[in-house]
# Entry
Amino acid sequence: MTPGAELKFPAGFLWGAATSPTQVEGHIENEWTNFTAQDGTNCRIACDHYHRYPEDVAWMAKLGIQAYRVGIEWSRLQDRPGAALNPGELARYVDLLDRLLAAGIEPMVVLHHFSNPPWISAGGGWTNPATITAFVDYVRQLVPALAGRVRLWNTFNEPDTYAGLGYLLGGYPPHQKGRLGQFFLVIRHMARAHEAASGIIHGASTASRKMEVGIAKNWTFFHAYKRYSLWDRATAWACHYGFNKFVLNSFLGGRRRQASTFLGLNYYGRVRFHHFQAMVPASGAPPGQLTDFGFVCDDMVERYPAGLPQILAYFQRRLRLPIYITEHGAASNDEPFRAADLCQNLTALHDAMAAGADVRGFFYWSLLDNFEWQFGYAKKFGLLAVDFNDPKLPRSAKPLAEVYSRICRNNSVPAARRAGAG
Ligand code: FCB
# Structure
């Protein structure tokens, strides 16, 4: 295929964008409210999507985006164990969904994206098995309230990232480090909650409306920079085992595989280790060294489009589940770089689908520049820029929004030169 030729995607392929409540809504009371990011900022206002969602839906419609992966914030809806859902907050989410549907935008609802109500955190969060019961009670109330409007359900976003950063690396609340036992426990509890929540969601299917449910698994490739470095290989293997294999087995192994109708894949790229250090900007690796090594990175990780067909083929072989790319994006102020990166990754996706991967849709991370957890507002992932210095938080389309809009409308991507597997 010559670079520049148009690669068509199958009819009905869903082109979307994604956000999460803590990162965009503002006015939330959860474990992130009092968290100060590395750039000194917090998420208390964020993009004020809480008030400005009508405008954001209008932006999506204008860009031709066909699906929105949107989180529902548990802490807004239940202020104590077993409470009935807050009717005002529920009505606001219903209004958001109605506006999406009126604009022809299909919602994919995320039930858990790195945040909990304060009373859950006070009880030990996901290390406490009582959280499973509480979550299932919440889902039992929420699903019937939204089932007429939502068909695509994503129970947990990146359990591996949540448990890894919260209990091993300390970057996310509750900021614990090296607690391997807690990490495994959190994953096991979330996997049980996923199975129970999926049962509730399937129960809301009707003859004409079949619910789809899955988790979103972040897949990072972990490699040693130098193949003969035993220590770096061991580090890469340990990360692969803990974050990829163990998590996938917990959620999708054995009979639990039946709970899901799809797998969500969040794909950003790869992390290579050198002398135990993760050689990516997100871990503070010196930019000069990354350039010397010839690594192509955004402001977070090494880009690795060649990995996408590999992981999709592996999932296809092992799980035989339809896949949505529930997140993919690049953080940078260099818009031509982001456009080239997107076309490379979508070319790789197209190759994988031509080779048999059953991928149903793609959600760009993110619709908006937003609060990127421990990094604050410094990482620019948005299709839309937000002027955080202006109290009105005006949005404007970045050049990448135009590129993506064209992809959405044409259902095709200009073929990029394939990068080697490296
Ligand atoms: C993913 C998260 C999402 C965002 C992107 C950049 O790990 O799910 O909230 O932070 O990375």
In short: The mean pLDDT is 97. Residues 16-408 form a domain with the TIM Barrel fold (CATH 3.20.20.80). The two ends are 21 Å apart (CA to CA). Residues 180-203 form the longest helix (24 residues).
